[in-house]
Amino acid sequence: MPSSPVHMLLAYRMADSLGINDKADFLLGAIAPDSVNHGMEQASEAVRYRAHIRDRDYDIWKRMLTDFADANSEHYADCLDYLKGYMFHCWTDIAWDEAVQPKIFKFLETQGYGYDDMTYQKWQELYRFNSVVIKDKDFEECRRLVKAGIPRDIAACDAGLIQRYRDYVADDYRDKIKEETPLFLNDSHIASTIRQMDDMGYSEKIISIGK
Questions:
Q1: Ramachandran angles phi, psi of 29, nearest 5°
Q2: What pLDDT, in 10s, does the model give residues 108-124?
Q3: Which domain holds residue 93?
Q4: How many domains is the chain built from?
């Protein structure tokens, strides 16, 4: 699953193709599910799964996301792009896991890492990649937009927590950035995630919310 800076850049790059009007709300929604990890390395699996409307079985997870969007589009009718951003986060988690994460693990195997080290080393590589992402030409605009979004309670995340997490991602995030060159990840992997979103119909899931 990508980090919050990657989620922001993905959301920014895809917003126009997804027909997003309020990019500020969309980018805020696109990092909101990870707010449950704020102040810790990672929340418990139960907490993370509720926030991401998730199941271990990816087919079930995909159905849950579709059902959640259908059930909540009327409730969020006045801020539909916020709901779309929230769902975008979850769908891009899936797209990244399908298109990029297996390649990360395969690379790490070539570096001699075993199964027990994989998750830790994956995050170290993501932290290295964050140092590249935050220097992208569009990232300052991502920061500006996400800070203009309006936090709202959604799924297992409350508005106050989302606001605190948003400010942390936009203004700090230093503990999740390693000033080292990534060993594997690069901008092509963001592009791969976008293609996966489009090719697998996940983008259309976002577009269809509220219709």
A1: -60, -30
A2: 999 999 888 998 999 99
A3: 4-207
A4: 1
